[in-house]
Amino acid sequence: MTAAYPTDIAYPATFQPKLAPAHLAAVCALRGVPAPAVDRPYAFCELGAGTGFTTNLLAAANPFAEFHAVDLNPEHVAAGRELALAGALPNVRHHAMGFAEALDARLPDFDFIALHGVWTWVDDAARRAVVRFLADKLRPGGLVYVSYTARPGMDAVAAVRRLVDEAGLLGHGEPTAARVARVRGFLDRLVAAGPALARRAPALVDYVGTLGRMAEASAIHDFLAPGWSAVHHREVRRAMAAAGCVFAGDADLAMDVPDLALEPDAASLVAAMPDAAAEATKDLLTQRPFRRDVYRRPRPGAAPPPFGGLMWLLRATVDAVAGTALPAGRHGPIPDLLAAMASRLERAPIDAASLLAQPEIARFPPAAAAAQLAALIAAGTAVPAVRPPAVLPAGLPRLSPFNRAALSRPIAPDNARLLASPATGGGVALDQTTGYLLWAVTTAEAGNAAALLAARLAAEGRTLSVGGRTVGDAAGLATLLAPQLDRFAGGDLRRLMRLGVVA
Ligand SMILES: C[S@@+](CC[C@H](N)C(=O)[O-])C[C@H]1O[C@@H](n2cnc3c(N)ncnc32)[C@H](O)[C@@H]1O
Q: 420: CA distance to ligand 1 center in Å?
């Protein structure tokens, strides 16, 4: 019997974009399997939601749907409720309870149930409770997202985790900082003592490096949780079958199109295998450490149209598409075809059949055009449109309460400024400069954005450098910022409006 899941230290807020129902629909679209509609009311539940940031953001991005987050740590749940309140989200509820209790709570049936960073972090009893919850609560046709530490890619790390446990280094019950320091110290000595490990077990050496850099709270939840394990895809598949679910696809989209993700010989090998064996072959060939699977509860019905009958829109700017790292694929990137698709997708959402029938696209071989569209989807450049395009407002652009709250809240540094995008039903990450510019244009009165931003930057002690000169006074900053704000208004702000980040 393992110790209970750690609750003494809160998990840092993270955003997991691949939990978004629109993303799960994209997985199904690439794999040609049905998915629930994502442009009309549905119910979504995240199990082990941590501080609930992902569920909150998805609730803000899909205001017509109903969201629930379940976590046993009351501190996590309090953080989720606080942001839901600050973001004025009427369509989300955060529940402080374990998975077993959630079964008895009066929750609705769900179209989407997601668990990220949970399956291989909790003990067998919790996993069984998850399976019962899925069996009971997932509607026919509904989808499950489940991520896990994957074997064989993490075999070496799993061996070391067992060693750490057997050597008594986990020391459950002791102060967290001491436990993390002791385990890190041991792993550093292990790697130093085995120089050949970098060649023989690169995943292990990478993991030790990552664990050393990770915040203490993440290290506790990610590696030192008593139930930590690594599993083969087939084990998760079997557990999902017990809940009445079948494999639908991989939330890492490129993996759904082996031609795009794998070398040609590997892609042909995988294409010749039955479904479960194909997944195991991919895991063996890529040695990937983590998987994000999507399962569905089958419901009799017609096969979906090609690319799922969804409407698609361009997430990036047209200019950025040319620079998108597109997997080569059998047809290779065709620059003119890509450019034609990108500019059509930028104009307005369009379904795949209509897109492929556009004259400027239909002049290319149909198989090549379909492969390029799949590549754009796999790269996350073309995404499902869940809402009609926003009519650009006549007045000044404004942020929703959630996006304003999210901009002013501390989130983990790697996704520090994440805003909800109601046009795509997901999130958009902003770099710091874009965050400041957006804050200024959505906060200032007309014509006052440069002065407002300059005053804020000066008050925060920030400077800008131009031609070797450092400018830090409000008047000087305003002069420098005015053209930058003009460029933003004519460029990236338009993209953010298209994505519904600004309304
Ligand atoms: C590694 S964290 C992942 C958090 C979040 N999903 C994310 O990826 O950011 C695992 C979460 O599962 C929760 N948890 C663990 N066992 C649970 C159980 N039996 N019932 C409900 N929540 C549980 C923990 O409190 C923690 O927030």
A: 23
